[in-house]
Structure formats: C-alpha cells, structure tokens
Design brief:
The protein is of the alpha+beta class and 660 residues long. A hairpin with a 5-residue loop joins strand 2 and strand 3. Strands 2, 3, 4, 5, 10, 18 and 19 form a seven-stranded mixed β-sheet that branches. The protein is built from 22 helices and 28 strands. It is 33% helix and 24% strand.
Length: 660
C-alpha cells in the first residue's frame, strides 16, 4: 500500500536536521582538533612535558683548596639522601635486604620504610657514592645528590678557608675566590610518572656541570698545626680570652700559618680584621725612623729620668728606674721614657711617614675579605701628647698581619712585602692558570738601619725583655709588647691587656717571622712572659717538623756561623737544631727513637698524655697529627709501634669522659 506524500515529507525533514546537526558537530570537532593541534599545539605540548618531565640543575663540584704542598684543605664530596615510595615496590622483602646491606640500617627500620601504608618514607642520614651504585635504578627507591664541603683536617684552618652556605662562599678563601671555586652548574631532564614522582633511570643530562678551579695557598699544613697547638696551649695556660699566631716568610711575604682563636672558636680571623694598640712592639719602627732620617744613632744617650717623665700633661713610666742610657739600651729594656724622648727628634711629618711607610694605617691587600686597616691619624688630628704616645705604640691601632709584615721588613733588609696567602690558581684539571710571586710594596729603610736594629732585637732576646724566646741553637731577634685594651665604649679597660711578641730567626739570615698575640691573659700578662714562650715553642716545633718549608742547608750555615753552645746529641733525630729540652719540654722524659733500617720511625706510645703533649711528640718525628678535640689520649691510629714515614698522618684517639 502506498503511503501518502504528506507522511514522507516530515520524515525527510527530520533526517535533514539530523544530518545537518551531525555535519555541524563533525565540523566543530574538526575545528577544535585543528585548533588544539595547530594553534595550541605548542602550549599543550609544554604542559604535557611539564607534567611528565622536570628540568633541574646539576650542582657543580666546588673546587679544592690546597696547602702549599698540595694537601687538600677543603674539598667537595658527593652525598646522597634516600627516600622510599613503598607503594611502588613490587618485592618488599628484596628491597629490605638491599636497604639493610647498603645503608646499614636495622631490619626493623627497613620494614618500616617499605610498609605500603606509608607512601613516602625519607631515610635519615647522608650516604656516599657507593650507595648510589647499590640503589640506583631500583623502583621505589629515590636518591637525591648533594654536594657538601668537607675539611679533611677539621677546623685546623677554618678561619682562613671560610665556609660555604647555600652554595656560596662566606668569609676567607671561599668568599674571596667564590667565582673560581663555584664552577658552572649543569642541567638535566628527569622523567616523572602520573603522580609526579621521578622515574628511576629516566634521567637525561642536557649539560654536564663544570667543576670549579683550585686555589693553592701559601699555608704550610704542618706549621699551621704547630701554630694552632702552641696557641691553644698558651690560651689554656694563661686563661686568655683568645689570641693570634702568624708565621710568615720575610723574603717573600708568604703567610705560612695563620691561626685566630677567640672564645674557643677558630672560625674567626682576628689576625686581619681586629686592630689593637701594639704597645712596645712598635718601638723598633720609631727607632728606624730616627736612624733613617739621620737624626740620631743607637749609641746616643738619653736621660730617662729614673723612669718617670711628664710630657704635655701626661706622665710616662718605665718598669725599671734608670738614669742615662743609650738609645739601643732604651730599645733593649723597652724604656717608654727613653724611646719617647728620642722620638722628639722626629718632625710630625717624619714620624707619620715612617709609620705609614711600614704599612700601618692602611690595609695590606691580602686576598681574602674582611681586612681592616687599623688607625693611624693624620698629623693634623694629633694632640701635643700624640708624638710621645705614638713612639711607644699608643694612639695607633694595627692588625697582627700588619705587624708581622712590618717586622718582615726589619728582617729582610728594609723591603716591605705584600702579604701573600695564595700561591697559585689552577683549573679543575690541575693545570696552573696563574702563579703569584713576591711583590715589594716599597723600601722602608736601608739595610744598614735594619741590621743595626736587628742586632738590638737579638739583645732583647738575649738579656732584655724577651729572654723567654731564647733558643739554644740559633740567635733570635724579637720584641715584646704589653698594651692596655681599649674599649669600644671609650677608655681603657682596667686589668685587660694585649700581650704580644714578634720574633724572627735565625737572626743572621731570617727565614721565619712569628707573631704571637694574646688577648686578656690572666695573672702574668707581660708579653715577654706569656707570648715569647709561644714564639719559642713554635720555632722549635718548626725545626722538628721535617716537612716544613725551612731551608735547612741555610740553617746549618747560620748555625755554624753563629756563636753559641754546641748542638746537643738529641738533635740527630730532628735533622737540625732541636734540643733535648725541646723534645721533653712537656716535662715527661722522652728519648726519640732512631729511624729504623726499613725506613720510618715507630709511632710512640702517647696513651694517657694530654693531646697537646702527644701532638708535640709526634710533630718532633716529622709526623702530621689529626685529632678530634683536646683531652687525654687513649691511643693512636695507626697503633703505637707501627712504623711511619715523615709526613704521614697519625690520628689521636681521645679518651671519652663519662660523667657521673
């Protein structure tokens, strides 16, 4: 039966509407797809990549800081933190075994971190590169690389080295050479799963990091350790608040040791950033100015008026009352009156220029940040009392570094040297980029003047105020100083003193300048009493250390030429000029063993001795010493009796104290 035409038309219209709708939807879908693929393709691609992968930096290993002989003082080492995503582990038992073996954690801890009820479980601690080899690529175990600064010799030179905080150098060499040491970070792409967690083994390095360069210091590790031991012992003995020891080479200006301790901390650098009034250690420079300007001679006499003299409303006093004496004797016995009276010959300009020429009042230019220049006011600011005060080391402030470098000029014939802490700069591959040689700042006095003053400084040590610095094998030149401590609030602090001694040896051909300064020692406080013995102990230990930078051939010539007693037989083991009293200066009889036929010396039994005494004995054998802290010794690593060669390191085991 045929349907009527009016029934076919609605059906045809419905189909047309459906077809049109379908075509429109298809067109819209195509347009949207085209928009997504073409117009927005890069945007969606970036979003997908950000979800599936992550760009991150690869920290560059920081460059190494070395001592003058190439011994590492500060290095970067890889450490890894470990975390476990327990829900990603397919075989918990196997992972537990691996964690116990690789991290040395307990079985209970391993079970805890692999518990599937805990999705993310960091494991406390930092682990070495061996951990990465064992755990890398294991699903569910995540390692994060960190670079930490490591000091193989503890805080032995912490003040000089500085520290690293958040990848940037803070203080010392770390800050001064941060650009060189920091290197250049690399980059990598890390694949992530749907949860945003890194996928083990799916890391792609885009740019490898470039390690930092190396800095070679002029510091000698053995002398640094010797200076540290001597200063610690002096602080303990005198109950001083702190102090500084500097050892320099007067010919080159190289800093061989620099130790600053204050309130028990070694991270500071008061040797370069804290100025003090030097007192009598400044007197040789006053005399140098008088001689250099032809205004007097050491044989000229001066009336010291029985040790009391009033000048411009101020009264100067001497420790010992005298009548007339030569200028040489005034320097030898450290007469305030004698030196101040002699300095009247200098004009204000000559006086100022002399002190400025020796480097006082301006920074030395050492390569690390934080140095201060001290205070030396221009003559226009001087009072009527100033010339007398300056002549004896007041109304002027200096740093220990300035003073050591100035004494270096007296020791080397009148050349003020630029202090040098950095010997070389090297690339990451160890190739030398730049070397730094000696730099003369200026000539400050003639050789005849410095020789004459040096002879007087020898007399200071022989029978003046510095007899505690005497050595039985070499002539020592030096000067003590005792100055009242000035408060930042204004005025001097009653009972507080800076006690110092600066010496150089051998006096005939100086190789080392040693400065010792103690802050506020208790009891005896004169520099010749508390600081001079530290200088002597440092010199003796430097002679005993077989790897020190001393020219022993030149020392032997100086020893033969210099008058004095014959070398004791105990000097044989040290190689040169160390006396039996120096070996046993800790008060405990001790005979150093001769070297064995097979090479090396047996490590002595130092158990039960204080750490500083044990360290001194080991230093006397040419051995390096590593220790955790002060205290009595339980033993050594290697053990007593083991043969060791000069330069080997012996670790002191400290006896632990159990309270209660």
């Amino acid at each position: 039966m045929n349907r009527p035409d009016n029934l076919l038309r609605p059906l045809s219209s419905r189909r047309r509407v459906l077809l049109a709708g379908w075509l429109l939807w298809t067109a819209a879908l195509g347009l949207r797809a085209g928009q997504i693929q073409l117009a927005q393709g890069s945007v969606w691609q970036e979003q997908a990549e950000s979800q599936q992968q992550m760009d991150q930096q690869i920290a560059a290993p920081r460059g190494t800081i070395l001592d003058r002989d190439g011994t590492a003082l500060a290095v970067s080492r890889e450490r890894y933190t470990v975390a476990v995503a327990a829900d990603q582990i397919s075989d918990p038992s196997a992972v537990q075994d691996l964690l116990v073996d690789a991290l040395r954690i307990s079985r209970e801890k391993a079970r805890s971190v692999t518990d599937p009820d805990r999705r993310w479980n960091p494991i406390a601690g930092r682990y070495g590169p061996a951990t990465r080899e064992l755990l890398s690529g294991i699903r569910g175990i995540y390692l994060e690389r960190e670079l930490e600064r490591y000091h193989p010799h503890g805080d032995l030179a912490r003040g000089v080295l500085g520290s690293v905080i958040d990848g940037s150098g803070q203080g010392g060499v770390e800050q001064g050479f941060d650009g060189l040491l920091s290197g250049h970070a690399g980059s990598e792409v890390v694949a992530r799963d749907v949860r945003g967690q890194p996928i083990p083994g799916e890391t792609f390095v885009v740019e490898r990091p470039l390690a930092g360069g190396q800095v070679v210091l002029t510091i000698d590790l053995d002398l640094q350790e010797i200076a540290r031991e001597a200063l610690e012992e002096a602080i303990e003995t005198t109950e001083a608040r702190g102090g500084d020891v500097l050892v320099t080479d007067p010919e080159t200006g190289e800093i061989l040791a620099l130790v600053s301790i204050r309130d028990g901390r070694t991270a500071g650098l008061s040797a370069i950033n804290t100025a003090y009034e030097p007192g009598s250690t400044l007197k040789p420079f006053t005399v140098a100015g008088i001689l250099s300007h032809g205004l007097g001679a050491l044989t000229d006499t001066v009336d010291v008026e029985d040790g009391t003299w009033e000048v411009a409303g101020r009264t100067l006093h001497d420790v010992h009352a005298e009548g007339r004496m030569t200028m040489a004797d005034a320097l030898r016995v450290s007469s305030n009156v004698g030196i101040a009276k002699a300095a009247q010959a200098l004009s204000v300009g000559q006086h100022y220029e002399t002190l400025r020429d020796f480097g006082f009042g301006v920074p030395t230019g050492i390569e690390i940040p934080g140095e201060v220049g001290g205070t030396l006011r221009r003559p226009a600011s001087w009072s009527r009392q100033s010339p007398a005060s300056l002549a004896i080391g007041y109304e002027v402030s200096v740093t220990p570094l300035q003073m050591a470098i100035a004494y270096g000029a007296l020791a080397n014939g009148g050349r003020l040297m630029e202090p040098r802490l950095v010997k070389e700069i090297r690339g990451a591959d160890g190739q030398v980029i730049e070397s730094f040689g000696p730099q003369v700042v200026r000539r400050v006095a003639g050789d005849d003047v410095t020789r004459a003053i040096s002879k007087v400084l020898v007399d200071v040590v022989e029978d003046g105020t510095g007899t505690e610095a005497q050595m039985s094998t070499f002539s020592v030149a030096g000067k003590s100083g005792t100055a009242r401590a000035y408060s930042t609030d204004g005025g001097y602090v009653a009972g507080n003193y800076y006690s110092s001694f600066v010496g150089f040896f051998p006096a005939e051909a100086p190789q080392l300048v040693i400065l010792v300064k103690l802050e506020n020692p208790q009891g005896a406080y004169y520099g010749g009493t508390v600081a001079a013995p530290v200088t002597r102990a440092t010199m003796e230990a430097a002679l005993a250390a077989r790897t020190s930078p001393l020219d022993r051939t030149a020392l032997a010539r100086a020893m033969q030429a210099a008058p004095g007693p014959a070398i004791p037989s105990a000097a044989r083991f040290a190689g040169l000029g160390i006396t039996s009293s120096a070996v046993a200066s800790d008060g405990v009889p001790y005979e150093a063993p001769a070297e064995l036929d097979g090479g090396g010396v047996p490590i002595p039994d130092v158990a039960g001795l204080p750490s500083r005494v044990a360290a001194r004995r080991l230093h006397a054998l040419g051995l390096r010493v590593e220790r955790e802290s002060a205290g009595d010794i339980a033993g050594t690593i290697p053990a007593a009796g083991t043969r060791a060669l000069p330069g080997d390191t012996v670790r002191l085991r400290i006896r632990r104290r159990i309270d209660g």
